[in-house]
């Protein structure tokens, strides 16, 4: 076999189901991946391919580590943003870009993945020795699967692909988990049991560890409210009486309220990175316990009094075991906590009622999200929202109840991210309604990749909030994207009457269920307001 065929066989051994990217790369061009039983998907733009792989990783708890490939030079230049996004959001896949031939790889100004991707991948290697193909690809998968999961990259110079190698003798990599220090668990339990107002803050690590049941068990044991990061949204059911919702630039009022009431804040599976799209613990006399599987997160942005390093599920289970013998079944404060959450929430929603039910034209974007929230079957849905205003509309007002039913993000995020995330989610869960909400700026960035959804038979629901202003920068944005969607082979509908919002969403869902990628273009007001007291 040659190197191309060997890599394709290794991908199959690793359980890769999708190779997504853009030619020219022999893994695509020579049909090597397809011959190994791997579905090859070519996107319009390399960045969207990385976003799709990101989406697959998110909704499979990082279990499904897929592969990316692209052309040397321009392909690697185009794709670096998508890989960087996945790195920031801890979404694993293995990138296999082509590189310039070995004789030219260090010649200025040729773009080198080996050099330029080192800060946006977990590991970066260049395969220069064909006989090292097995160990090199194995290292990439091992890194992507274990610890803090992130993309790994192996650049293959174009003259290496056709080189002949020996017979394949490959063993797939495995995933490992790290258990927390029992002494740290005991100390954390002391703080949580003694706290008057403990608050739990759950991040994406809970999803990747599949620690949802243990999180709910701990919350109910402590009678403690639970907030999540945007990445962790859906780790705790938002219809649970102890739910505070997701922290973001726009968030439920009860979250901010309890954040300032807490005397112990327990962060589990989170990085506590300071960002407008997360929470910033108040600088008050309280105790912060930080549990993460990445020691590099500890004290990075937020000073903690105690660190508990380990897998989120194992940590939560250990805490439940440590605490359940120390507390009674009823600590006597559950009703008071639940009533306080409900009271603040009801007051907050009352302040937003006019926006959520607004019948004026152009359509209020909050009404679109409210109708979407009321119509969608949350048990059969995976949703996401793009950067900017769509995030601020969706994060507080689209309630999720099932694990892995929302793909959030927590750091810097590219416009156009949501389309690829939704397509990736649909590939991983074809039985689910996979939808994303975006605006003019995002459509301008990756809108043509809706054609990928129609060509590759990936029926997703696209909710486009068109206020004719690109990314809130007072830059006019024109065109009829519903008509573009039709021209690209999908279903498109433009909605201008607020009374048609709900019926249009129902029609869109029906189209998707019948196998047609769908765009619903709602003509909306140029309107947004924050739902976070410290930013208002």
Structure description:
Residues 386-521 form the Thiamine pyrophosphate enzyme TPP-binding domain. Its cofactor is thiamine diphosphate. The chain is globular. Strand 18, helix 20 and strand 19 (518-523) form a beta-alpha-beta unit. The chain has three domains: 3-157, 3-Layer(aba) Sandwich (Rossmann fold), CATH 3.40.50.970; 182-342, TPP-binding domain (Rossmann fold); 357-523, 3-Layer(aba) Sandwich (Rossmann fold), CATH 3.40.50. The chain has helices at residues 3-13, 26-29, 32-35, 46-59, 74-88, 113-116, 133-145, 182-194, 204-209, 212-222, 253-261, 312-324, 334-356, 365-375, 389-397, 417-428, 440-446, 450-455, 481-487, 501-513; strands at 18-21, 39-42, 67-69, 94-95, 98-99, 124-126, 152-157, 198-202, 226-228, 243-246, 264-268, 287-292, 306-309, 381-385, 406-407, 433-438, 461-466, 491-495, 518-523. It has 536 residues and is of the alpha/beta class. The chain is built from 20 helices and 19 strands. 38% of the residues lie in helices and 15% in strands. Strands 1, 2, 3, 4, 5, 6 and 7 form a seven-stranded parallel β-sheet that branches.
Nutshell version of this structure?
The protein has 536 residues and is an alpha/beta fold. Helices cover 38% and strands 15% of the residues.
Shape: globular
Structural class: alpha/beta
Largest sheet: 7 strands, parallel
Number of domains: 3
- Residue fraction in strands: 15-25%
User: What is the helix tally?
Assistant: 20
Question: What is the name of the CATH architecture of the largest domain?
Answer: 3-Layer(aba) Sandwich
């Amino acid at each position: 076999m040659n190197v191309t065929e060997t890599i394709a066989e290794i991908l199959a051994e690793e359980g890769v189901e999708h190779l997504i990217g853009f030619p020219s790369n022999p893994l695509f061009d020579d049909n090597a991946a397809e011959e190994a039983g791997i579905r090859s998907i070519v996107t319009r733009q390399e960045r969207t391919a990385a976003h799709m792989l990101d989406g697959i990783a998110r909704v499979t708890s990082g279990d499904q580590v897929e592969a990316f490939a692209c052309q040397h030079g321009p392909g690697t230049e185009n794709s670096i943003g998508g890989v960087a996004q996945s790195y920031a959001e801890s979404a694993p896949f293995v990138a296999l870009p082509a590189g310039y031939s070995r004789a030219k790889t260090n010649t200025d100004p040729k773009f080198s993945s080996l050099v330029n991707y080192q800060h946006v991948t977990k590991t970066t290697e260049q395969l220069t020795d064909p006989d090292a193909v097995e160990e090199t690809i194995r290292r990439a998968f091992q890194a992507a699967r274990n610890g803090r999961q992130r993309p790994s990259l192996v650049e293959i110079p174009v003259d290496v692909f056709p080189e002949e190698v020996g017979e394949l003798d490959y063993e797939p990599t495995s995933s490992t988990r790290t258990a927390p220090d029992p002494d740290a668990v005991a100390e954390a339990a002391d703080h949580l049991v003694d706290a008057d107002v403990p608050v739990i803050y759950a991040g994406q690590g809970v999803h990747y560890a599949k620690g949802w049941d243990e999180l709910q068990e701990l919350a109910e044991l402590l009678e403690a409210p639970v907030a999540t990061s945007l990445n962790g949204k859906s780790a705790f059911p938002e219809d649970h009486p102890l739910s505070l919702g997701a922290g973001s630039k726009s968030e439920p009022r009860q979250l901010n309220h309890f954040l300032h009431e807490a005397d112990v804040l327990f962060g589990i599976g989170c990085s506590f990175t300071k960002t407008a799209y997360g929470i910033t613990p108040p600088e008050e006399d309280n105790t912060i316990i930080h549990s993460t599987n990445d020691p590099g997160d500890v004290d990075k942005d937020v000073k903690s009094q105690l660190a508990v390093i380990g897998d989120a599920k194992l940590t939560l289970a250990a805490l439940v075991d440590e605490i359940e013998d120390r507390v009674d079944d009823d600590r006597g404060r559950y009703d008071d906590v639940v009533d306080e959450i409900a009271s603040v929430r009801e007051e907050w929603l009352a302040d937003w009622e006019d926006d959520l039910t607004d019948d004026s034209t152009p359509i209020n974007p909050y009404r679109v999200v409210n109708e979407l929230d009321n119509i969608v079957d949350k048990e059969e849905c995976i949703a996401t929202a793009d950067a900017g205003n769509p995030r601020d509309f969706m994060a507080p007002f689209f309630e999720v109840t099932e694990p892995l039913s929302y793909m959030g993000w927590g750091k810097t995020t590219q416009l156009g991210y949501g389309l690829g995330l939704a397509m990736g989610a649909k590939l991983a869960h074809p039985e689910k309604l996979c939808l994303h909400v975006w605006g003019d700026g995002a459509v301008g960035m990756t809108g043509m990749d809706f054609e990928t959804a129609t060509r590759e038979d990936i029926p997703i629901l696209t909710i486009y909030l068109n206020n004719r202003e690109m990314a809130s920068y007072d830059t006019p944005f024109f065109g009829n994207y519903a008509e573009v969607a039709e021209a690209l082979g999908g279903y498109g509908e433009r909605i201008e009457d607020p009374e048609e919002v709900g019926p249009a969403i129902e029609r869109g869902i029906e189209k998707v269920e019948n196998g047609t990628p769908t765009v619903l273009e709602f003509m909306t007001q140029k309107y947004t307001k924050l739902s976070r007291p410290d930013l208002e």
